[in-house]
Amino acid sequence: MKLPGGFIEQLRGLLPDEWEQLVGAITSSEPSVAVRVNGGRGVEVADGMRRVPWCSQGFYTDGRPAFTFDPDWHAGRYYVQDASSMFITHVIKHFIHEPVRYLDLCAAPGGKTTAAIQSLPEGSLVVANEIVPPRARVLADNVIRWGSPYCVVTSNAPAKIGKLTHFFDVIATDVPCSGEGMMRKDAEAVAQWSPELVEQCAQRQREILTDAWQALRPGGLLIYSTCTYNHKENEQIADFIMQELGATSLEVPTEASWGLHGAIGSDAHCYRFMPHRVDGEGLFMAAFRKDGKSPRQDLRIKAKNVKKVDETVLNWLSAPHQFVIDQQGELLIAVPQDIQREVIALRTSLNVLHAGVELATVMGRKTVPHHAIAMSTARAIDAFPTCNVDYSTALRYLRGESITMDAARGHILVAHHGAILGFAYNLGNRANNLYPKPQRILSTHTPELKPIVIP
Questions:
Q1: E strands within 234-384?
Q2: Tens digits of pLDDT across the chain (455 residues)
Q3: 5-290 and 384-443: identical CATH topology
């Protein structure tokens, strides 16, 4: 790999004593691969796995398994995430100890969103936003796969979210950047790099932060991160947050053995991950407290009459008394009671793609269960019959092919070794495959052996 000369000169100025080691790591070493298990599904890191030091749910894999062909991934039992990015779980657990309203402003594809869901105190509302519609749809799919009913997915510009004055306790901004930290594993990041791109990204980062700043309450927490190395998109933005927006830099406890590098040319507390020091890709992260102190603000909402629904639908939930039912067009949605007002307010103000648990689509007199209730951790265990299938049948199901099942007729949960994949409608001699088309495996290849990621 040949790195741009201007990029190397930039690193030489940034890290005069370490730039050669960093260049060597980028050009000559293999990226590590890590996954984070879904504790909401009862998954734990197995004994003997090499753990990510700053994330109790993360571990490194040997090589890069074919995740596409692992039913456990499709079942939401783990998320593939770079180890450096898992640092956000450590930041959240250090600063947040009671339920909050949390915004992931630039959230696609969902790694840091799902990390927040499992790291925040129970009852926290997570709003995951992505401005680009196709990426927002992928984000929603990953959130549904993760299974939490306490997440709302939106697709809005930061300026629109900024109009939710003092609504959020925490805003995480993993902003679009020049992507220098991805150069080791992404040739496109090398090809697109230029000093002009760095300048453009830094300007855009200031705009995003300024646009969204009003939505964070005084005294609230801002988490800023990039996957790049340069000073302009990192420490200079940290200084901008303190000097122009009005925030105080916060120190995050770390251990020397982790290999993190501190701030360069700034008084802010900053945490740099670089592949010659850590087993992960390039990342920059810093936390700030917005100056002042104020309770979060509620938005005005109009009272909404809750429609009566078929009692059977309510019984699909393990704790139906903890939810209210909302109807959006033909879709029945279960929303946790303790975030109902927030969800109504967000629907009034933003473009909401997903909220709570989509239960069913009402089609005339028929009520057809939605894929989201199959994947939800709020689903009652006995809500639907379950049929466990072998590995080859699981892959056929995930491709959208017809399968046969030894099960009762009607809507059946398809599972592999107990891990739920989705619905099929069993007709007896065959089953209609109801796995969502956008999520289907496109490859026709079937591995000889199933990838084993979670032992």
A1: 247-250, 271-273, 283-290, 323-328, 331-336, 352-355, 357-363, 366-369
A2: 899 999 999 999 999 999 999 999 999 999 999 999 999 999 999 999 999 999 999 999 998 999 999 999 999 999 999 999 999 999 999 999 999 999 999 999 999 999 999 999 999 999 999 999 999 999 999 999 999 999 999 999 999 999 999 999 999 999 999 999 999 999 999 999 999 999 999 999 999 999 999 999 999 999 999 999 999 999 999 999 999 999 999 999 999 999 999 999 999 999 999 999 999 999 999 999 999 998 888 877 765 555 556 678 989 999 999 999 988 999 999 999 999 999 999 999 999 999 999 999 998 888 899 999 999 999 999 999 999 999 999 999 999 999 999 888 999 999 999 999 999 999 988 899 999 999 999 999 989 889 999 98
A3: no
Domain 384-443 class in CATH: mainly beta
* 3-state DSSP assignment of residue 111: helix
Yes or no: say if 304 and 289 are a contact pair by the CB < 8 Å rule: no
Measured CA distances, 325 to 215, 381, 419 (Å) = 28, 20, 27
Q: Hey, how many other C-beta atoms are within 10 angstroms of the C-beta on 220?
A: 24
| Spatial contact of 38 and 81, defined as CB atoms under 8 Å apart | no
Q: Which of 30, 208, 328, 264 lies closest to 272 in space, CA to CA?
A: 264
Select the CATH number that applies to the domain covering 5-290 from these four: 3.40.50.300, 3.40.50.150, 3.30.70.260, 3.90.550.10: 3.40.50.150
Name the helix (H) or strand (E) containing 199: helix 195-212
Distance set, CA 221 to CA 127, 129, 289, 372 (Å): 15, 17, 5, 31
The residue ranges of every structural domain in the chain are: 5-290, 302-380, 384-443
Q: In what order do the strands lie in the sheet with 431-433?
A: 386-388, 410-416, 419-426, 431-433
Q: In the structure encoding, which two tokens stand for residue 427, read together?
A: 């007709």
Give the integer Cα–Cα distance in Å for 263 and 250. 12
The per-residue DSSP string of 211-252 comes to HHGGGEEEEEEEEEEES---STTTHHHHHHIIIIIIEEEE--
What separation, in Å, do the N-terminal and C-terminal C-alpha atoms of the chain show?
Answer: 35
Half-sphere exposure of residue 268: CA atoms within 13 angstroms, side-chain side: 29
